[in-house]
Design a protein that fits this description.
363 residues, alpha+beta, BirA Bifunctional Protein, domain 2, 7-stranded mixed sheet, 3-stranded antiparallel sheet, 12 helices, 36% helix, binds adenosine-5'-[phenylalaninyl-phosphate]
């Protein structure tokens, strides 16, 4: 073979490559496979006289560089065009979110109480000291206020805002001095007197579910949490009605075996006052499992919040005659109530609020 013949064959390879390049179909094996065009050309070098092999080798290297560069540049195009699409394959499911577990719990709690005639209401979460403390039989500087670990806020300009106009408040409540202070509500009990004012007179059956705020932070306390407050006022309401309502809720929320229990306690706005416990779902209130102390509750019961018969002074603050009407009230933490459900093993309620999707998507 002469060098001219070799150059001729190289030209054929390059022309073929140029044609493939315009067609967008470059198959690497067509050039570099065992029987590929370039591989065959390279083999021809042995047929050349030895003094011509250097010149042919340089040409081969040049061609190889060109081919490799161009094949690499068109590779993504090749892969894309060669891929076949199987339309019968299932598609990629987009992730669907769901309501936050505490929102789910709030919806369930609302429905349970609505079934027995309670009406869900919402009241301000930034409210006057009057509704949060004073109207609830806690005068200024009373030591009972210390328990609530309150956040106070600067009073904004309330000109023209009827809900926050201190003059409107002092008109309704002459004992109030200049509208009092504004606080982040420490409990949903601020809704008690507000509901009495809204309806004017009993019967009242309210369920107030809202965010509350306290300067507290540990495994069972968060600075922002939720409470639900029940209030029933009518003629002849007794502790029996309260106990019946607690038992009803326990069975609806925790299942037919659940029971409630009330223990004497002290709140300024109820008399008598109680702490409310629900039976443990592991030992069903006995405190023992197979002769051993229940590891979850140790006593058979879990405390969820407070309750009691509405104090006459609170009824008076809401314009209701305590000689004619009586009522009961309760207020429990939503997070606490929810975590006591069977099957949930939540050791720290702060998990609900640190926005970890891995935790939240389990509910
Ligand atoms: C009260 O807040 C009363 N207002 C309850 C009440 C209403 C009594 C009506 C009588 C009549 P207490 O401070 O105990 O009570 O709070 C009630 C429940 O709220 C607690 O048992 C707990 O479940 C929940 N709770 C209180 N503070 C926090 C917090 N920082 N984080 C999470 N949950 C809390």
């Amino acid at each position: 073979m002469t060098i001219d013949q070799f150059n001729q064959q190289a030209k054929v390879v390059l022309n073929q490559f140029a044609a493939d390049l315009t067609g967008g179909q470059i198959d690497q094996t067509r050039y570099f496979g065992k029987k590929g065009l370039f591989t065959q050309l390279a083999k021809q070098i042995q047929q050349l006289p030895s003094e011509k092999r250097g010149q042919a080798g340089k040409l081969l290297n040049q061609i190889k560089r060109d081919l490799t560069k161009n094949i690499a540049a068109t590779a993504p195009l090749n892969q894309a065009t060669q891929q076949s699409i199987d339309f019968s394959l299932p598609g990629n499911k987009p992730k669907v979110g769901h309501l936050h577990p505490i929102t789910q719990a709030i919806n369930q709690i609302s429905r349970i109480f609505e079934r027995i005639g309670f009406i869900r209401v919402r009241y301000p979460e930034v409210d006057w000291d009057w509704y949060v403390f004073e109207s609830l039989n806690m005068p200024p500087n009373h030591p009972a206020r210390d328990e609530w670990e309150t956040f106070f806020i600067d009073r904004p300009d309330t000109t023209g805002n009827v809900a926050y106009d201190p003059k409107q408040l002092t008109k309704r409540h002459p004992k109030m001095i200049d509208g009092g202070k504004l606080v982040l509500t420490t409990h949903t009990s601020n809704g008690q007197v507000r509901e009495m004012e809204r309806l004017g007179k009993p019967p009242i059956r309210m369920i107030n579910i809202a965010r509350c705020y306290r300067r507290q932070q540990d495994a069972t306390h968060t600075q922002m949490f939720h409470q639900f407050e029940g209030l029933v006022i009518d003629k002849g309401i007794t502790i029996q009605h309260l106990k019946g309502t607690l038992d009803y809720f326990a069975k609806e929320f925790y299942g037919p075996k659940a029971k409630s229990r009330i223990r004497p306690f002290h709140f300024r706005f109820t008399e008598p006052s109680f702490e409310v416990d629900f039976s443990c779902h592991i030992c069903h209130g006995t405190g023992f499992v197979n002769g051993q102390k229940c590891k979850l509750c140790k006593s058979g019961w879990h405390e969820v919040g407070g309750a009691g018969m509405v104090h006459p002074n609170v009824l008076k603050a809401g314009g209701i005659d305590p000689d004619q009407y009586t009522g009961f009230a309760f207020g429990w933490g939503v997070e606490r109530t929810y975590t006591l459900r069977e099957g949930l093993n939540i050791d720290d309620i702060r998990h609900f609020y640190n926005n970890k999707v891995k935790f939240l998507e389990q509910f």
